[in-house]
Design goal:
seven-stranded parallel sheet, globular, single chain, alpha/beta, 284 residues
């Protein structure tokens, strides 16, 4: 079995690939797509095949998927990029990768997505059967492009597409936790963020990738304990702005997801059920 992974130099991909390689069997191989050969060297040292090319280049896609059995599309463009770039990577390239995979006879396609595609909250934890409702504080080109890519990939006939929706990802030196204050400083004190440690994101994606009978299924991946804006400041060792206590949370269930499906169907249990468990284990 040969698995292609994209987006391997990003925060999620660079931590996912070593875990994928660590659990491969003798007959299994991993291929990574990178734009810069030098950035592929760490993965080559771990045993991965490296293909150099741009995800937005049709010729590169054909080369990348040749002989592949499964694709894990981790690639994403967000946080400060122009809207046209977000659409080009998150939607256009993702869908073209799916079509290239279908044409090449790839059996399985795992699309790595985001829980932000749900849009506004529902007054309860969000489930995979909830439709996307555009809106909410984080809606924009990134979210909309990811949502549309999901729909179009799942509609490809003849390709086993499954989707893993990620929370706010942190841990193992990822600066994401500190970056959370970009938003949290403007929140209400009780406003919550649902998170997931890199180890648990990788474990969830690996379960979705390898589980039989999950074609067309969507799975939320997250920990057990969303944290408040106050806690985010405390975790970062930053003074809590007094204004937090004067604000009201406009959508208390925004971004809070249910993990019942992945628990029941795939046996997922977070190694770090909370950011505090990760902190105490020295895994931040």
């Amino acid at each position: 079995m040969l698995t292609l992974v994209t987006g391997v130099t990003g925060q999620v991909g660079r931590r996912f690939v070593p875990r994928l390689l660590a659990q491969t069997r003798p007959e299994e191989r991993v291929r990574v797509l990178v734009r810069d050969a030098a950035r592929g060297e760490p993965f080559a040292e771990l045993g991965a095949e490296v293909v150099v090319g741009d995800l937005r280049d049709a010729e590169a896609l054909g080369k990348a998927v040749a002989g592949v059995d499964a694709v894990v599309n981790v690639a994403a463009s967000f946080r400060g990029v122009p809207d046209d770039e977000a659409w080009a990577v998150n939607h256009d390239a993702a869908v073209e990768l799916g079509r290239a995979a279908l044409a090449a006879g790839v059996r399985t396609f795992l699309q790595v997505s985001t829980a932000l595609v749900y849009g506004v909250g529902r007054g309860r934890p969000l489930t995979e059967d909830d439709e996307s409702r555009p809106g909410g504080p984080m809606w924009g080109a990134y979210t909309e492009s990811k949502a549309r890519a999901e729909r179009e990939l799942l509609a490809l006939e003849g390709l086993d597409v499954r989707v893993g929706r990620l929370p706010f990802v942190y841990g193992e030196g990822d600066p994401h936790l500190a970056q959370s204050l970009i938003w949290a400083r403007d929140w209400a004190a009780t406003q919550r963020l649902h998170m997931g440690h890199h180890m648990d994101v990788a474990q969830g994606l690996l379960r979705v990738l390898h589980a039989p009978g999950t074609a067309g299924r969507i799975y939320n991946i997250a920990d057990d304990a969303p944290v408040t804006a106050v806690e985010l400041h405390q975790l970062n060792g930053v003074e809590i702005p007094e204004e937090l206590y004067t604000r009201a949370d406009p959508d208390p269930w925004f971004g809070i997801t249910s993990t019942d499906r992945i628990r029941r169907e795939l046996g997922y249990r977070p190694v770090y059920p909370s950011v505090y468990a990760a902190r105490d284990a020295g895994a931040l």
